[in-house]
Every structure is written in C-alpha cells, then in structure tokens.
Inverse folding.
C-alpha cells in the first residue's frame, strides 16, 4: 500500500485511523467539507485526484434513532454514498474497505453472528447499512465489508461519554440489561483495519474487541474504571426505554475469520476500555 484515502476522517473512527495508517503509507484524510459522497460525479473526481491504492470509507450517517425520521438522508449517505465511494475506488483501480454494523441482524440468533448469516435489520439504520453493503459489492469485486459493533472513541458521541456525563448529574442510572454485544474501542478497530487493508481479503469480515457484555454490564465497568463508586446502576428491560429504533438483543459477532486473516485475536473489551478511560482522565487523548 502506497497511498490510502480515508473518508469520514474527522469522525470517531477516522480520527483514530488516519494516524494509525500513517506509519505504513501516505494517508489522505477527507470529510464532508472536502466532497459530498452522495454526489457520484464529485466523489469519483475527488478519488481520482488522489489516485489511492486503498479507500477506507468511514463516512456514514450514524444516528440510529434519527434515521427513523431522516430515512432519505440516511439512505443517501449510507447506501448511495457508499456505492459512490466504491465506484470511485474501482474507477481509480483502488481496493475499498467499507465499515459495516451489527445492526444488519435482528438479534434472534443465540450464538455470535457469522459473516454468512442472513441479515434481517430491525431498524432503518440497519437497512441503510445493509443497502450500502450491497451497493459496494455491486460496484467492485475488490471490496471488504468490515462489520463492527458498539463503537466508542474520543471523537463524537458514544455510550461511554453518555454514562460519564449522566454520572455527573445523577446518583442512580437505569441501563438496559437484555441487549448483549461487544464494546469496541475505535483505536483498536483502526489497528485491525490497517491489517485488513494490507491483507487483500475480500467479502465480509467481523471486527470488534473480544468478549461480551450487556449495556448494563458496560455501564458498570465504565463507572468502576472511572472511580465513580458513588453512582449505582440498575438493570432494566428494553421495554422500559422505548426508543424510535428497535435494537437487536444479540449483537455478538463471531471473530473466527478475522483471526484467520490477521493472525491474532483482538484484546478483551474491558482492557481496551481501561486504556480509554485512563487516557481520558489524564488528558492524554
């Protein structure tokens, strides 16, 4: 890899990915201010001007509840936009990595989801991301869909920051206990993406930290690691917190293919969270 183009470079994942990649290639980071991925001609011209070997599309509409009312915008960015990026990459002779999501599944499976399992999204956001996967696959054979879950990082809204913000104002938090997944540190995903970009793998691969927990368990770990012992967390059912978008009860993704591709298993989610909170408290991030 000589040159890598990262779209959505100022988002949560892109912010971590650009510096991780810089040690191995020339990296060009772009975001919505540079060009609009929903415009096919503009996207193709922008990618062509960079002439990359690899394009990693981190751009996306990520407001899961907002997508229920902003359906057209979410589809324009996550489906049409993803297809435009992939088409532009193909025209430039570049390989493309597209960021996917666990929300393409309905959560009814008891075991972690395999890449080959049939998608059945419960919400509009999941529908848009699945449509994006299909647009990318249609645009170029040289693609890799990287599905991840429960992402958090220093740039942008995320569950860790929400819990710590609530803990500043409340002594007791109520958090959903009947949804299970794997919290994933954006920096860890960035390291994985670097390996996958160089691997030449195509198709679909799951990529998260290892292990699992509920949102309730995640919240308890956040408060414990942040030293917020005075704040208690109560487990509640999803039905106690009705939201515009339904969420899958099981968001676990099987990491078997990822391990076979990169040769190692991602570190446990709690270890990654410990690092994130330590950096947050010392002001290193």
């Amino acid at each position: 890899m000589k040159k890598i183009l990262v779209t959505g470079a100022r988002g949560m994942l892109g912010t971590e990915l650009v510096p991780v990649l810089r040690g191995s290639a020339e990296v060009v980071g772009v975001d919505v201010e540079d060009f609009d991925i929903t415009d096919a001609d503009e996207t193709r011209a922008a990618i062509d001007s960079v002439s990359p070997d690899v394009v990693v599309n981190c751009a996306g509409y990520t407001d899961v509840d907002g997508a229920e009312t902003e359906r057209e915008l979410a589809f324009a960015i996550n489906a049409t936009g993803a297809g435009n990026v992939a088409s532009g990459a193909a025209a430039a002779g570049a390989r493309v990595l597209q960021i996917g999501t666990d929300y393409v599944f309905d959560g009814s499976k008891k075991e972690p989801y395999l890449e080959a399992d049939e998608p059945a999204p419960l919400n509009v956001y999941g529908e848009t991301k699945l449509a994006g996967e299909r647009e990318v696959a249609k645009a170029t054979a040289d693609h890799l869909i990287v599905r991840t879950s429960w992402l958090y990082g220093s740039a942008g809204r995320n569950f860790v920051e929400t819990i710590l913000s609530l803990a500043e104002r409340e002594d007791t938090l109520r958090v959903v206990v009947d949804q299970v997944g794997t919290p994933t540190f954006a920096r860890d995903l960035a390291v994985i993406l670097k390996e996958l970009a160089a691997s030449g793998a195509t198709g679909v691969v799951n990529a998260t930290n290892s292990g699992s927990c509920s949102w309730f368990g995640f919240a308890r770990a956040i408060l414990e690691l942040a030293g917020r012992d005075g704040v208690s967390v109560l487990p509640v059912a999803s039905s106690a917190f009705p939201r515009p978008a339904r969420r899958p009860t099981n968001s676990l993704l099987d990491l078997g293919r990822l391990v076979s591709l990169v040769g190692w298993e991602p570190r446990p989610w709690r270890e990654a969270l410990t690092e994130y909170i330590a950096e947050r408290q010392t002001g290193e991030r």
Remarks:
- Residues 71-91 form the longest helix (21 residues).
- DSSP finds nine helices and twelve strands in the chain.
- The CA atoms of residues 106 and 248 lie 5 Å apart.
- The first strand starts at residue 3 and ends at 7.
